[in-house]
Amino acid sequence: MATIALQLEMAKKVGSRRLDFIDDLRNYAQFFNRVVDHLHDPDLETVALTSTFESRRSHIEWIMSFSEHVLFKIPLVPPESLSPMLLIIHEAVSNAVYHGNLCVPDEIRASKTFHEYEEELAAAHPVLLNQQATMKLLLFRDHGDLTITDSGKGFNYQLQLDRDHPPSPESEMGRGIYILKQTADEIRFQDNGKTLRVRKNWRQT
Amino acid sequence: MIEWTENISGEQATLSLRGKITFEISGELRNRVKAILSEFPLKHLSFDLAGVRFVDSSGLGLLVSIKNTMVKRDGSFKIDNAAETVRNIMNQTGLDKYFEI
């Protein structure tokens, strides 16, 4: 059974609370119900969300859904920064899983659904779907930090970082890292591109 | 997660979408558009994005590929009612002009 691990640590001026979850997706709803009431606390100063998950669509949907719930419920992120931060998380997770771990070829992306590709991998190379990515999301009152590490071989990220204009409008791929660069305040790759660090400052109004 | 309703009449079709257009689901949406285009002699296709609050880079790629397909058919592809979050990502990537939103 594929497992997913998650740790949510919430710190206030006085005291902190840590909730851990290591299980399969069947028990996710129970964990979420246990967490959700703590997210509204107006005294929260920092929230740290750490997750290790496998390269499966169900895990990606789970981690995205959970991240969105945390982002939109805690009192730390101003409304205008919610969608940009969600976009950063989504692009970073996609990049780590689809490019880093699974190396999904462009022709597959243009011709198959991810469900079809996942079924093919499950039959031919199931070990690929077990490859993990680890995400750490730190949310403060003035900014958010995201670090994500995949299990792939890395890539030539400098080429992508040096690009100062978007791909041509007719291009059907290649916008992910450009969007990250445009949306974040800082973006850094490490370990041959296997680790991505992104910082987003909240705009003070 | 994405869901949509279809309104097809003569050479024109509108898909009204609700949810998020992301990598996980873009293949399913692309397959449905392909099926519609092979079944109906469409010249004009539009997506009503009033119910879409999030599009990622793969979702943008899908929208571009649909527009490219319609242009090859001497047809048109239009996006209506894009939310501010969707407009922002289109502006960032220079696609606002391509889609004329």
If you had to describe this structure to a student in words, what would you say it looks like?
The complex is a heterodimer of chains A (205) and B (101). Chain A has 205 residues and is of the alpha+beta class. Chain A has one domain: Heat Shock Protein 90. Chain A is 41% helix and 27% strand. Chain A contains 8 helices and 7 strands; from the N terminus they run ββαβαααααββααββ. A 7-stranded antiparallel β-sheet of chain A has the order 2-1-3-4-5-7-6, with helices on one face. In chain A, strand 1 and strand 2 form a beta hairpin. In chain A, helix 2 packs antiparallel against helix 3 and helix 3 packs antiparallel against helix 8. The termini of chain A are far apart. The relative contact order of chain A is 0.15. With 101 residues, chain B is an alpha/beta fold. Helices cover 46% and strands 35% of the residues of chain B. Chain B is built from 4 helices and 4 strands; from the N terminus they run E-E-H-E-H-E-H-H. Chain B has a 4-stranded mixed β-sheet. Classes of the chains: A alpha+beta (205), B alpha/beta (101). At the A-B interface, helix 2, helix 3, helix 5 and helix 8 of A face helix 1, helix 2, helix 3 and helix 4 of B.
β-strand number of chain A: 7
**Percentage of β-strand residues of chain B:** 25-35%
* Mean of residue pLDDT values of chain A: 89
Instruction: Tell me the structural class of chain B.
Output: alpha/beta
List the secondary-structure elements of chain B in sequence, H or E.
EEHEHEHH
Question: What is the percent of helical residues of chain A?
Answer: 40-55%
Order of helices and strands of chain A: EEHEHHHHHEEHHEE
**Unreliable residue runs of chain A:** none
Strand line-up across the major sheet of chain B: 1-2-3-4
CATH architecture of chain A: 2-Layer Sandwich
What is the terminal-to-terminal distance of chain B?
24 Å
Tell the overall outline of chain A: globular
Poorly predicted regions of chain B are none
In the sheet with the most strands of chain A, the strands line up as 2-1-3-4-5-7-6
Largest sheet of chain B: 4 strands, mixed
At CATH level 3, the topology of chain A is: Heat Shock Protein 90
Strand content of chain A: 25-35%
Largest sheet features of chain A: 7 strands, antiparallel
